Amino acid sequence: MTRELIVTLVAFPRSLLALKLFQSLEMRYLLAAMILASFCLVPIGNSYAQTPNNLAIFVQIKVVDSGGNLVSYMEATKITVTDVSKLNLLLDQNSPVFSKSFVTNGAQKFEVIKANDTVVHTSDTIVSQNMISSSDGQHSIVLATADHDGYPVVKGDTVTAYWTLIRPA
Predict the structure, then answer these.
(1) Distance CA 125, CA 82 (A)
(2) Which of 64, 104, 156, 164 is a plausible cystine mate for 58, CB 3.0–4.6 Å?
(3) Helix (H, G, I), strand (E, B) or coil at 24
(4) pLDDT in tens, 114-144
(5) Where do the domains of the chain lie?
(6) For residues 100, 83, 52 and 102, what is the CA-based torsion angle, rounded to 10 degrees?
(7) Is the pTM of this model over 0.85?
């Protein structure tokens, strides 16, 4: 039996070599494909909006039931600013709704503006968006929206959206 095995290997050395070469190339392609795929799967931190004038916005949302129990805490993954100039005009106001402070990073100074919006829901619904809007008394205009996966609320649930806006000072 050993003799037949040796003859078989000797008789087909080229095809065996070709098979080994094909397998090694196949492994190389597979390895290259896995490396490229891993770069595509790397999560990119995109849970904030950054506008052309370097206004960064972060939104966290907390849902508490009527008994005071935490139901959900999430961060919005898509924030859209519909009118940057009007949003900046709103943020320039000295409103008691805004908590303003300054931070310095190297030589650059930034203004950090925080605002909380709390709503007690009066009926069952599903919420998938939080907004900053401005009103002139007759019309209301949405200036920024925070889109997220959404969460169900029932009557009596309290939802607080924590907005943090950072812009150059």
Answers:
(1) 25
(2) 164
(3) helix
(4) 999 899 999 999 888 888 888 878 888 898 9
(5) 2-41, 49-168
(6) 0
(7) no
